[in-house]
């Protein structure tokens, strides 16, 4: 039996109690097929499937009912194709925005006053972006018993960041790996936590109840009304369920923050780290350009995070590389028609200038499409 099953207040247990038949089932995760690169690589990318500790991804299809909001899939997805109900970017920005000499990264289980969810979404790029500017305390003590997969992931990322910090002559991360003392939960604590999780999943209640609970002897009428309206509207929309009695929510895309079905958002760890001042370091991937590039720019169009940017300046093709945004997905190296790109070590920002090839028909400089040797004008003429 897993360790989480011993804790009556563990989110997985709480959600099982409030997501039975006849309840409104919220969508926790969704895969943005347009951004997913699984079908563009050989062998196909299976990062989300391999890392998920509960098997919420099967054959590239997410199963929201199994998701426990650990965040590991968002950390390892090279294309930020996993959308979740947790706004990791906003929560992390709020934590690091505080004007303090050090930043403590801990989940609510390790630090009850923390605004961060499970720390599985953290990557070495994020840790480097923060630790290269301020002291970082990374508390992973509770992860060992709660989710060993998250503990192992964070330990690996912290080790990589420590190596980069040592090379830069900075102090390593303060890794807090002591397991917290066991807590005793009373019956009142259990039902208070049950109520809080229910409100978080299905709505925040009315003005009186949402501020801190209903008055003594009164019920949260606003919460009950919203539950009834939400169930009725979803049923009226004709949304079918895999299990009899369940009511699936409508598509959350485009819904506002006040909706009981919050919109799912993607999280790009490289983009967040780059926006917060990350500099090239050993924690990032690197790219080398070899002879043979024909200036087609196909690599820049494929790059999911914009680590490669292509432009034409006069009769030269300019390819710029930003290692902080690279996730080493391998799309550029695998799909380059001339096999001119290779992943390398010692990342640095690069800017290559490649002379544009000349059309074999008319002799004018042009940017080819793939391995073509004839310009578009000659093709159409």
Q: Helix count, per DSSP?
A: 14
* SSE class: alpha+beta
Strand order of the biggest β-sheet: 1-4-8
Q: Let me know the average pLDDT.
A: 77
Total of domains: 2
Characterize the overall form.
elongated
Give a written overview of the molecule:
The chain is α+β, with helices and mostly antiparallel strands and 381 residues long. It has 2 domains: 3-270, no CATH class; 284-380, Alpha-Beta Plaits. The chain has helices spanning 11-18, 47-51, 72-76, 88-96, 124-131, 143-146, 148-167, 187-202, 207-210, 221-236, 269-275, 298-302, 331-335, 376-380; strands spanning 29-31, 57-58, 61-62, 82-84, 102-105, 135-139, 174-176, 265-266, 286-289, 308-313, 316-321, 341-344, 350-355. The strands form 5 sheets. A 3-stranded antiparallel β-sheet has the order 1-4-8, with no helix packed on it. It has a 3-stranded parallel β-sheet with strand order 5-6-7, covered by helices on one side. α5 links the parallel β5 (102-105) and β6 (135-139). α1 (11-18) crosses α8, α5 packs across α7 (148-167) and α5 packs parallel to α11. It is elongated.
Give a quick rundown of the structure.
With 381 residues, the chain is α+β, with helices and mostly antiparallel strands.
């Amino acid at each position: 039996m897993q360790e989480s099953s011993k804790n009556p207040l563990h989110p997985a247990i709480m959600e099982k109690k409030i997501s039975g038949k006849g309840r409104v089932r919220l969508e926790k995760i969704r895969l943005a097929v347009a951004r997913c690169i699984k079908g563009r690589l050989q062998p196909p990318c299976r990062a989300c499937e391999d890392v998920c500790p509960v098997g919420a991804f099967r054959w590239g299809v997410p199963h929201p009912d199994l998701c426990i909001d650990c965040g590991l899939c968002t950390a390892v997805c090279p294309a930020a194709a996993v959308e979740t109900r947790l706004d990791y970017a906003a929560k992390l920005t709020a934590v690091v925005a505080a004007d303090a000499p050090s930043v403590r990264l801990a989940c609510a289980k390790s630090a009850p006053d923390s605004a961060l969810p499970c720390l599985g979404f953290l990557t070495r790029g994020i840790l480097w972006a923060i630790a290269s500017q301020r002291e970082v305390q990374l508390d992973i003590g509770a992860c060992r018993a709660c989710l060993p997969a998250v503990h192992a992931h964070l330990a690996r990322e912290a080790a990589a960041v420590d190596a980069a910090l040592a090379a830069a002559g900075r102090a390593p991360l303060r890794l807090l790996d002591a397991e917290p003392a066991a807590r005793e939960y009373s019956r009142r604590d259990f039902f208070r936590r049950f109520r809080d999780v229910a409100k978080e999943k299905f709505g925040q209640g009315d003005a009186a109840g949402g501020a801190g609970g209903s008055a003594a002897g009164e019920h949260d009428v606003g919460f009950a009304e919203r539950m009834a309206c939400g169930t009725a509207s979803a049923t009226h929309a004709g949304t079918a369920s895999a299990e009899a009695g369940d009511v699936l929510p409508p598509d959350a895309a485009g819904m506002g923050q006040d909706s009981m079905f919050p919109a799912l958002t993607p999280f790009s760890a490289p983009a967040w780290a780059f926006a917060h001042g990350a500099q090239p370091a050993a924690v990032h991937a690197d790219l080398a350009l070899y002879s043979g590039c024909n200036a087609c720019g196909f690599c820049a169009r494929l790059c999911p995070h914009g680590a490669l940017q292509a432009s034409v300046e006069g009769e030269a093709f300019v390819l710029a590389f930003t290692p902080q945004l690279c996730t080493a997905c391998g799309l550029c190296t695998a799909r380059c028609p001339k096999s001119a790109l290779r992943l390398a070590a010692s990342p640095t920002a690069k800017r290559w200038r490649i002379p544009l090839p000349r059309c074999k028909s008319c002799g004018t400089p042009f940017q080819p499409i793939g391995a073509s040797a004839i310009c578009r004008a000659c093709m159409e003429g």
